[in-house]
Design brief:
There is one protein chain. The chain has helices spanning 2-10, 15-42, 44-52, 71-100, 106-110, 112-144, 156-173, 176-185, 191-196, 198-212, 217-256, 260-269, and strands at 63-65, 153-155. With 270 residues, the chain is mostly helical. It has two domains: 14-172, no CATH class; 175-251, no CATH class. The two termini are 36 Å apart.
Length: 270
């Protein structure tokens, strides 16, 4: 273990080299994002059709309109950017891993590829949850508030911006268990700390939901409730990681120190 620490200490880079490495990873991430945006731009019409499906799952009919000359152009750019984030997410996470991997020990570097897979999967789960559950419910609730004599006509750029923001936000908040796992693995986070600051975390969650979502209580609650549930799930995940680390440490200590009884029996037999 000391040899491993010395090995990583010998590989420490000056500050300018760190900044150069960071610049390289940012450039590579931007290239991946641009490639993902280009692919999404090719299939932008199909992605637009998918984003419009939630409008057909509400009780009241919703009519979308183009109210600006550049309205559809802005919609296409938003779709391309959103699709680029989704497609390039594994590559961006890989670039993050390449940047921080030299500063990690060998046992810390082994589980990071699994974190990349888990983070990507949970992001897609959050997007799917928002697409199939939250977005139709929010549309049905808000459009249902209009009286029968008012016809709901919404600008398509406003709707697409609202939908994409909801999808991205829920994709990000579903990363909380992965963050908890990683921080617990490196010893920064423990379930005791998370339980101690549970009340503070709930307050921060509702404040964050109010900032990230449109200024209405219903959408804030729809975001805050999954966040609270994910926080509780993160406590459970952190507990599993901490217990596993303790069990591994005890097993290593037991293997390093021979049992006292066996040594006493050998001395008595002699």
């Amino acid at each position: 273990m000391p040899e491993m620490k010395r090995q990583y200490q010998d590989q420490e880079m000056p500050l300018l080299d760190h900044l150069e490495e960071l610049r390289t990873r940012i450039i590579h991430s931007l290239i991946g994002l641009i490639i993902g945006m280009a692919i999404s731009l090719v299939f932008s019409k199909r992605i637009l059709d998918l984003l419009l499906i939630p409008t057909t799952r509400i009780d009241a009919p919703l009519h979308l309109q183009v109210l600006k000359v550049q309205g559809m152009f802005m919609v296409t750019l938003e779709i391309a950017f959103f699709g680029g984030i989704v497609l390039s997410l594994p590559y961006i996470l890989y670039q993050i891993w390449l940047f921080i991997a030299p500063g990690l020990l060998e046992h810390e570097r082994r589980y990071f590829p699994r974190l990349i897979f888990s983070a990507t999967t949970l992001f897609l789960v959050g997007v799917a949850f928002s697409y199939f559950v939250v977005l139709p419910f929010a549309l049905n609730f808000f459009i249902g508030l209009a009286p029968p004599e008012i016809k709901p006509n919404i600008a398509i750029d406003f709707y697409i911006g609202f939908a994409i923001r909801m999808l991205v936000i829920f994709g990000i908040i579903f990363e909380l268990p992965v963050l908890s796992y990683f921080l617990s693995k490196i010893g920064i986070l423990t379930p005791e700390i998370m339980r101690r600051y549970r009340r503070h975390a709930i307050v921060v969650i509702f404040i964050s939901a109010a900032i990230l979502t449109p200024p209405d209580i219903m959408t804030q609650v729809l975001l805050a409730i999954p966040l609270v549930l994910l926080y509780e799930l993160s406590i459970w995940i952190s507990g599993i990681v901490v217990r596993g680390k303790k069990a591994a440490a005890e097993a290593e200590a037991h293997a390093a120190d021979p049992p006292q009884e066996s040594s006493q029996e050998e001395n008595s037999s002699t």
